[in-house]
Amino acid sequence: MKRTHLVLAILGVAALLLFPVGVGNPYYIHLLETIMIYAIVLFGLDIVVGYTGQVSLGHAGLFGIGAYTAGVLVTKLGTPLLVTLIASIGVTALFGAILALPALRVSGPYLAMVTLAFGTIIQILINEMTFLTEGPMGIKLTKPNLFGVRLDEREFFWVVAVLMVLALIVVHRVLRSHLGRAFEALRGSPVASDCMGVSVYRYKVYAFVISAGFAGLAGALYAFSEQYISPNSYNFELTVLFLLAVIMGGRKSRIGAMLGAAIIVLLPKLLDDVEMFRYVSVALAVLVIATTVFGIQKSRVTAKQMAIPVVGSIALAGLSFWLQTMTDWRLSIFGVIMLFVVYYLQDGIVGFVRSALNLAKPKPEAQVAGASLAGGDAVSTTAASGSGEILKADRVLMQFGGLKALNDVSLSIQRGTIHGLIGPNGSGKSTMMNVLTGIYVPTAGTIAFEGRSVVGRTSSDIALSGIARTFQNVQLFGEMTALQNVQVGLHHTFDSNLFDVAVGTPRYGRESRAATARALGLLQFVGLADLAYEEARNLPYGKQRLLEIARALALDPQLLLLDEPAAGLTAPDIKELISFIRKIRDHGITVILIEHHMDVVMSMCDTVSVLDFGQKIAEGEPAAVQADEKVIEAYLGGQAA
Amino acid sequence: MIRFSKIAIATALVASGTLALAADPIKIGVNGPFTGGSSSMGVSMRDGVRLAITEINASGGVLGRQLVAVERDDEAKNERGVQIAQELVNKEKVTAVVGYINTGVALASQRFFQEAKIPVMNNVATGSIITHQFDKEPENYVFRNAAHDSIQAPMIVEEAITRRGFKRVAILADSTNYGQLGREDLEKALKAKGITPVAVEKFNIKDVDMTAQLLKAKEAGAEAVLTYGIGPELAQIANGMTKLGWKVPLIGSWTLSMANYIDNAGPGGEGARMPQTFIQEPTTPKRQSFIISYLKTFNPKNARMDSPVSAAQGYDSIYLLAAAIKQAGSTDGPKVKAALEDLKTPIEGVVTTYNKPFSKTDHDAITANIPVFGEVKGGKVVYAYPDDQKKASEIRVKK
Amino acid sequence: MQILTQLIFSGIALGMIYAVIAFGYQLTFATSDTLNFGQGDALMLGALVGLTLVGLGVNYWLMIPLVCLFGAFQGAVVERIGVRPAIKIKSEFGWIMSTIALGIIFKNVAENVWGRDDLKFPSPLPEAPMKFLGANVLPMEVLVVVGAILMMLAVEFFNRKTIYGKAVVATFNDRDAAKLMGINTGLVITFSYALSSLTAGFAGVLIAPLTLTGATMGAVLGLKAFAVAIIGGLTSGMGIIVGGIILGVAETTTGFYISTGYKDVPGLVLLLIVLAVRPQGLFGKTAIKKV
């Protein structure tokens, strides 16, 4: 961590711990305590919403499970604090898994509705299972004992503060690790993620379960803090508030989560107090107007863009003076804020401030100095066991409805060769790739890779067994840097689990450093070493394609499938590409190459197969294929491009 | 219309508060459900409280200081009550608290006032255990001027079993603390008469369809249905009975007098009977002036108080507290409490005249002889027994 | 046995309401791949507006088309404010959050305008139950079933036989191509939202006399209707009718034989199971994703 950041962080924690000493009033201590507890929930929710991009409407339910686990254990069994907290985390994580395993097979709106249903079921169960939960009558608690001493308001505050800081550190570490990269990857491009050996489904579930654990911890602390829990509290309104907090504070940001927590706790209190609200809304309107004027002067925004925020904030201030009480309109105000945030503050307040002050996004990791590996070392040398068949596809049929995209196609790929796959557009080349990597399941036929069948296995499983690929339409993880993209490919080199990451064991340290070094080496191999810390989406098109190759190589594959790697490249780039592919082959990796650039195909390939309308019409050495009548006809007189 | 007069009242209160001479106002917390299914009780209670405060302030306030109501809407939710209690104790620093309509909210929240030694005058909530929650502690800060369930339940049972001769009764109670504790009181009272209910059913707040519960009661051969719930759900019970074509008498706790029961149950709700401490009829000069003032100030629809019992008890609770503060000569919690337990001068309230209503061991102002039976007739609550109406001008004092 | 018949009839009536709301989900999903998370609130607004109109003296049957008009307008507003901008900025869950936000706003406004209490909706048909196969059936329940089926048939007819219907199918299949063919896809999407809210409002005035009308009536209905849409399949009209009946009957029987508190559970659990085992629903078709 950078020096200044560390100092600021320490000051922040110190201020937090000194708060109850300075401010004696239990009401305000309790308020800040609630903010911290919500912040813990939001750290976890951010992983799901901010990183993996899933909308969960069930986190209030998970929060409630944590609270009730604590409540029931304490009142029925009198368990000590530490046991209670661990139990709450565990039980809630378990429920998270029960929910996630079926729910995350779907995505988008389906997940939102499923989690909503789950949250509703949980509320009903808590309400009805009175033998366990006392139902609507609720459970009364006192502050817990720690080391035999009953904690008072201040002491419990410190417990919560310490736990929040720990939660923050754990989340931070997880998100910076290979786990965090996996989460971002599955959002950036689910297909690519699967094909790089990071199973989208599995990691969505991990993310959800981890966030459930956090919600469980927060729930238990909440039960002790409020000293009373009832089923009513864990309702739709709360879950929407959590979402609003994450989005409004700023996704993918710990500060954003804490800010969001503060807003959703303080805003209702603010609305209760009309006087205070009037001051705040006027101040807000003034701020918005000032920012607009400033922005227009600097030509950063146009009047039209800022029209709605300006009018809105003035209207809000006016409304607060006209209405006698704002509490009745609390939910409408939340709704309007939500709309505003969705359209104008997509990166939340943190994102807005960052871009307004032109702050750079925090660098993901310290720049590793001098990756002095010779490029060649980074690409692993597969145990090239001489010759022999590495892949055999036999009479593959791929049918979509009535359309036969692949019709009785057989391929035999020899180890250590570059095998070209050509054909006119729509002939089934990419379909073949997708079948080989498990994206499609063939309607009929067999495919055996190194003796094992590929059919029916998941893409990530196939990737981990040695087949890597690039994509016709570039499928990079856009928001991640080039280095991080390659590191995702290196995911399979990590044995460390959640515990290793959270605690920071030596094993994790070793693996992390090794992965970074190796990734830099691979980037050097494709000539992208100096762009390592650039976001992938900012790279020029040609370099993006090379990055995909580097990422695919990170899988240590036996077989590399390249889908039109030369598309969109300029002539010098193509020359470079050819030399890369040759080097790859020299390392013992077998290559299947789909290409339209005939010179590339002819100069590199040992064998070429030609597809047309889903059928193989020719196969053999490049020169022979080039002269084949059927091939020429298929391309309608196509010759070397 | 009502909104304007509410705003007018609020402005008047604020104005009267600011017009007060240099002295600090005395803050009284007013805690009740002003929105939601229980709101007719909460709003009526609050209005009764406001009326009392205006009257007291107009005649100089208490100890030369004006009374100020710090009103908070608990939405009948226990957890809201808890949060409000903490706010009233730590942030607003109130002298005393009136309110609690819902038993559950009271039970969840009172302990914060008890810990802070702030007296609570429960003016509507009837759960028997409310005033006994802190019996084990040396000082008990919870008082009540409402008719608690250990009075109401036996009254209900007396009416159903003895006076009207039913042998098979079903109990329908909601799932809140109020409903479940009330049900327990009913079962206890029935047992004392050697009767077991033929069916005991539960329903949730916001439930709309009571068919299942009513069918079970009907199958069991119930001749009457005893209820412990609040307005909206009670109305659905009546509607459900109409839908099933099964009309048996409804006898239940005082909440059968709620406006939203009467209005939503329509003709099917007529004839329901419930214990009442106050019926909106000008049977004594005090009651007459109270009704006139209330109607003039708040102008409810059809000149019918939404919950006459809540309004009257809310009104009385302020007068009780004011008298105690005056007698104690201070707003210090323990002193006010001591004064309440030993009120030296009688206080003429709407429900009754309070003559030393509390003692160290007895914190309930209403005894079994005070409430009468009300009946829903013609869209409002009237005296069920003509005898009671004739004798209504006699003020029943605590025995 | 009599009780079981009673429960089944009530269940069917209830299920048809869910089906009509679910139908609305299908309409918007078909054209824009989005759903209105505030669908339940559209129903609630329809019911409350209907209540006001009836209170002002408008005849129930006359009130229905008026509420439908209101529903259409409300749906168009939701699309304009909530969905269109989100689609434009290609936000992945923007439309989820914005339709939720609009739903919350509508509910809060309704609470303030009509109050937080639940109100009684006067029934246009006699409230005395009829006897049918030994069970009590309210005339209103029959109206619900008939009304729901009529509404769905009307929309299906509209879709299949008219130009608009073809435009919808075209927009669903390929929005850009449809645009190039001169179809105003934006208008089509707006229209589908308007139609969806119209059906929701219609469902609202159908069901209002059977239950209490209030600001909170929409939320759970919306969620269960979604369960029906998933169970039946988001692309199949027949599916949602079957799904609705299954859900409705499961609910009433659970409410009686187990406990009323648990009556919402079977539907929601069924939703989870269907999503886990057969995500396209009982009658739906799987879509192939091309990479």
Summarize the structure.
The complex is a heterotrimer of chains A (641), B (399) and C (291). By secondary structure, chain B is an alpha/beta fold.
Instruction: Report the total helices of chain C.
Output: 11
Describe the global form of chain B.
Answer: globular
Q: Which bin fits the share of residues in helices of chain C?
A: over 70%
Major beta sheet of chain C, specifics? Answer: 2 strands, antiparallel
Radius of gyration of chain C: 19 Å
Structural class of chain B: alpha/beta
Major β-sheet strand ordering of chain C: 1-2
List the uncertain runs of chain C.
none
Give me the Rg of chain B, rounded. Answer: 20 Å
Residue ranges of chain B: pLDDT <50 for 5 or more in a row? 17-22
Q: How far do the termini of chain B sit from each other?
A: 42 Å
Largest beta-sheet details of chain B? 5 strands, parallel
Helix-strand makeup class of chain C: mainly alpha
Give me the oligomer status. Answer: heterotrimer
Chains forming the largest contact: A-C, 48 and 47 residues
The amount of helix of chain B comes to 40-55%
List the secondary-structure elements of chain C in sequence, H or E. Answer: HHHHEEHHHHHHH
3D architecture notes:
The complex is a heterotrimer of chains A (641), B (399) and C (291). By secondary structure, chain A is an alpha/beta fold. In chain A, strands 10-11-12-7-13-14 form a 6-stranded mixed β-sheet, sandwiched between helices. A 4-stranded antiparallel β-sheet of chain A has the order 6-5-8-9, covered by helices on one side. In chain A, strand 13 and strand 14 (615-620) form a beta hairpin. In chain A, helix 2 (26-51) packs across helix 11 and helix 11 (236-249) runs parallel beside helix 15. The longest helix of chain A is centred in the N-terminal third of the chain and has 27 residues, at 200-226. Mean pLDDT of chain B is 89; it is low at 17-22. In chain B, helix 5 packs across helix 6 (177-192). Chain C is mostly helical and 291 residues long. Chain C is built from 11 helices and 2 strands. In chain C, helix 1 (2-32) packs parallel to helix 5 (139-161), helix 1 (2-32) runs antiparallel to helix 8 (185-207) and helix 5 (139-161) packs across helix 6. The longest helix of chain C has 31 residues, at 2-32.
